[in-house]
Amino acid sequence: MATSTVNLDKTQYVKVNQGLNALVLQCLRDSVRIVFSELKPARGNTIFHSLSGKDQPLTLPFTDTNVWALAVTETSSLVVTETQSNGCSSAEYGLNIQRGRVPGVGVVHVFGRNPDIDTGDGFEDVWNGGGDYTAYNATVAEQISIVSTSTDDTNIAGNGAWLIQVVGLDGSYNEINEIIALNGTTPVTSVNSYIRCSIAVILTAGSTGHNVGEITGNQSVTTGNVFFNMPTTSNRTLICTYTVPAGKVAYVTGGFATLARKGNVSSEIKVSVRFPGSVFQVVEWFAVVGPGSSYVNRDFEIPLIGIPTGTDIRIQADVDTNNTGIAAGLEILTVDV
Q1: How far apart are CA 73 and CA 11, in angstroms?
Q2: 239 pLDDT higher than 90
Q3: Cα(319)–Cα(151) distance, rounded to whole angstroms?
Q4: Distance between CA atoms of 231 and 238, rounded to whole angstroms?
Q5: Among 11, 80, 200, 336, which residue has the least CB neighbours within 10 Å?
């Protein structure tokens, strides 16, 4: 919730809402004119709501457009209280975010799968590479070396994947991306340098319509830091990790975990975060059990802690039966700071 005094103007309307949120408008002195319009109204606009210092506050449980105010006198005063409840369902609010109608707010969905966890492995990250997600060991940005296990994944000439887009963060945690032409079993190198890169997607392919081989991307110098290991035919990485970009604070609003293979098995799941300069700390722990509660979903009406720039987030799983597959995902709200 944010309350502020609006800097009114007699000569033109000024916008008073930051997003499509719930508002309370209170005129403290003289009167103001209020208009609801996507575009800025002209000063001479004749359709308006008049709000005076003698009136009760104007409460708007939700807004679906911009709200504008015009001072009637030099001493007109207006106070606005805005809350991000939006007065609508979470689905409607999420839709407005995806439409870009909630300034400074974004949604990120991360999801992954670990196809084979054994009892002796302990907790493994939920990603297709299995074991620990070694890319989190990266401390400096490097170019990415990308290679496939199949010669079919060759731009133009092959039947498999042609162009791959990688999305990640540079050494200052700014968001960057680029498109790279694949060359089958011969490694190709990115132009940009990355300190994090957990998302890669195939944009174009030959007659198969997908990557024929397994495509791996790792730091070109510190080769043990593997950013992604794209499974065959998937056209996308399956990695349930996220690092908060520069200029953002993140809030985990939900998550899920499920057994990716049927059976009488159980798994413990933990969500951990590592703040810059610190170590991983568990922030959520739950379990899935087959064949009963083999799927668990978490919705946080009050999001988990505000997570600052440069913080790493991961989901890990431990199992009681060999050859257990686990899939998991997180829904993350990002807010500009």
Answers
A1: 10
A2: yes
A3: 36
A4: 8
A5: 11
At 11-63, the pLDDT tens digits run 999 999 888 778 888 888 899 999 988 899 999 888 888 898 888 888 776 67
- 110: CB partners within 8 A, 6+ apart: 198, 239, 240, 241, 242, 313, 329, 330, 332
Tokens 């401390």 appear where? 139
Q: Which amino acid is at 279?
A: V
Closest CA to 288 of 313, 314, 317, 315: 317
Question: How far is residue 152 CA from its own chain's centroid?
Answer: 32
Q: What is the pTM of this model?
A: 0.74
Give the architecture-level CATH label for domain 2-96.
Sandwich (2.60)
d(CA 68, CA 201) in angstroms, rounded, equals 42
Q: Mean pLDDT in the chain?
A: 90
Place of tokens 């990640």: 168
Q: Taking the domain 105-129+241-336, which CATH number applies?
A: 2.60.120.1330
Q: Are domains 2-96 and 105-129+241-336 of this chain identical in fold? A: yes
